[in-house]
Design a protein that fits this description.
The structure is a homodimer. Chain A is of the alpha/beta class. Helices cover about 35% and strands about 20% of the residues of chain A. Chain A has eleven helices and eleven strands. In chain A, the strands form two sheets. In chain A, strands 6-7-8-9-11-10 form a six-stranded mixed beta sheet, with helices on both faces. Chain A has a five-stranded parallel beta sheet with strand order 2-1-3-4-5. In chain A, helix 4 packs antiparallel against helix 5. The radius of gyration of chain A is 21 Å and the shape is elongated. At the A-B interface, helix 5, helix 6 and helix 7 of A face helix 5, helix 6 and helix 7 of B.
Chain lengths: ~325, ~325
Amino acid sequence: MLEGKKSIVILGHVNPDGDCIGSCLGLYNYLKENYEGLEVSVYLEKMGVKFSFLSGFEDVHTEYDDTKTFDLCITSDASDVPRLGVFAPYRETAKDTFCVDHHITNKGMCRVNVIESWASSASEVVFRLLDKGKISKAVAECLYTGIAHDTGIFKFSNTSRQTMEIAGFLMEKGIDFPKIIDDSFFAKTYGQAKIHGRAVLESVRILDNRCVYTVVTTDELREYGCTVKATDGIVDQLRIIEGIEIAFLLYQTGNPDEYKVSLRTNSAVDVSRIALSFGGGGHVKAAGCTMTGEPQEIVEKISGKIREQWEELK
Amino acid sequence: MLEGKKSIVILGHVNPDGDCIGSCLGLYNYLKENYEGLEVSVYLEKMGVKFSFLSGFEDVHTEYDDTKTFDLCITSDASDVPRLGVFAPYRETAKDTFCVDHHITNKGMCRVNVIESWASSASEVVFRLLDKGKISKAVAECLYTGIAHDTGIFKFSNTSRQTMEIAGFLMEKGIDFPKIIDDSFFAKTYGQAKIHGRAVLESVRILDNRCVYTVVTTDELREYGCTVKATDGIVDQLRIIEGIEIAFLLYQTGNPDEYKVSLRTNSAVDVSRIALSFGGGGHVKAAGCTMTGEPQEIVEKISGKIREQWEELK
């Protein structure tokens, strides 16, 4: 794949997450370390500073440069061309293209495609492509971060025996994995920690205490110096409360009376059906939609849909 | 070890945690499944219901019976005789004794001792003793639970490459590990979730925002239907806030003006020295002590000790 190539560009997906950043930078460091004379560039949208500990973070280009073309374009963790965002033209103009991914919906957008839909993460797929003897601590940090993020720290069902074995191999490279996990995965800003605390404290149990919901307003976010991004994780905190079958979060979008609704379930209820009935979508256990009205009206509507499914399941 | 033995008792430590329960029940299920005719009993103090999904949970004896003696006593995860609690006499009166542990302080209290201080957990040590071909799903659930709990879900530095490989092997037995982690590790009662939310919301940053503390009173615990046990994990939530070097929690013990202080650090400060100076103890990064006075006085005293160490470290 690399033969005769002098310049390589690595692309990920828009709004890059831990796996996208980890797999792209893992590849970047590996190529830089092991192929002298190769020009390697990474183009990604602006990334969270919590990933700044990764080698190569400072080298990432965040703006599209229309004067550039490359011998080889590698896409990682992006399931289709639109997900490449503004950097998509690099794939068009590259002499050769290579796609690494784990999304089942990826139909293969490059000349050569390595798509392992059973893999936990793109980082796991990248790991399998590399010469194990040449994986440095810097590469290990990137790939471990990607795997850890996409598995919710080895908790989601996408985690396989091989995922654990790969993570173990990478951990043995001497990476500070307790710190990686704390700083890049669990860490919150003080404002975010307070928004989460308040959201749980003001949550309300309904439907015989089998459901719980909470509401986060734009004013509250402003009060704690947060954006809506800070609401990530609140609904999961509600979901793991003992006895709770369905948890949902309402947060104001900024438009008057408009709320994003994020739903989670531990039960047989299919929350994607609820989200779908209000114009949203998602998965059986995690879904979302946008609704308008007073929070209490929205809660009533969602409750009605939950009751409907309970009736069906009886 | 089992030759000629007809009755076996398995003991853990007082206030049994996930690893103690997991390793004891892992051994119990393994012996029951593979050695017909063997009488196997487990004696442990009352366990959290969150572990009730483990096979054998219902069979555990929680009361000492002074009429019983056994051919073999196996102790797991207990570092010394006092840690066996009221069940310690079973070790005294058994014809043979066997100790499985991972505590570096364990000096060996049985005739045969397998103490691997580098292991993540007693469950990991137990795993290595078993015939891998005979590990059932029920045994895998127990040992996985033990390993996951003692590593903070593969996050603490005691997690080795082999720990990951063992966990991977156990996961492949078809256990529902996402549910095990959620229900036995992350789950909180509604009252506990609210106590945590409130504790974070009312926390105070001090010392140039490098430290954060919070106070939980007996009245608050009562309001949310919680015991002091519900405060577990609060100080860790504070520790992972961005920019925080030292976090501490004060909670009322029930005696007037008496507070337990729980300290955590991400920095070079040795919190065990702070705890020690107030009659407590612990580890470099996690320590505790009991102090009397108004919360504000206690906070001043702790702050003074933090400043002292900062001066030294300059």
